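ok trying again, last paste got cut off:
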Amino acid sequence: MSTQRIFKESTSGVLRYLSMTVATAGLVMLAACAPTQTARTTPAPIDNLSAPTPPKASLTLVQLCAPNGRKCEMAFVQIKQGADPVALVRDYYRRTTGGALPAVSIESSCSTGWAAAVESEQGSVRAGGVLHAQAAVCGYPTAESAINKALDICDAKTSGGCRKSNRIKADWGRWDSATVNAQSLDTGRPEKAWSFSGGQMCNSTVPLVVSAACPAEPAALLRAAGVKFP
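nice, full thing came through this time. structure:
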């Protein structure tokens, strides 16, 4: 009897102990699973003001004439908006040549688009003299429209002598203010239209002769624009 009582008490004691242990473990688990509050962090603001703003570019068509006034040529100058292209070009020649400075005059301010320039020779020394003429334009939607307009202006100066000249030199390219290299701005360096995007050029006698100086594609564009032997 006593053994049974001792066994039962021992068994009851063990059961009570186990129950207490399980209950205690349950409290520990609940405490471990309780959600914890994390500190909220505010993201650092993005400082857009520190990024440098690219300069706004502008293209100017200028005429450069030798100090004696005998020879003139057309050229394009890339500048920052608001800069003085005449002063920049003269400063460029002062830095690079050290000689007499050319006379510089502004012909036009250009917008994004195709630029083109033509130079022609008409006549001969034996026939009484050679007539030189030139013209340049900028801001046109296509290469063809820019070439035709430059030829129209040149023809107006020579009574149609540019499209029917003895020799012609023409070049064109597309200038875009959004893609200008900032290092090209304000150098004052005169540039030709062929140096711009998609640039091409042709220097040939007329009728046009395909050569390294006048590849097939620009020759075809000039023929389509009406450049032919009289």
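cool. Confidence is low (pLDDT under 50) at residues 1-36, 44-49. Residues 2-33 form the longest helix (32 residues).
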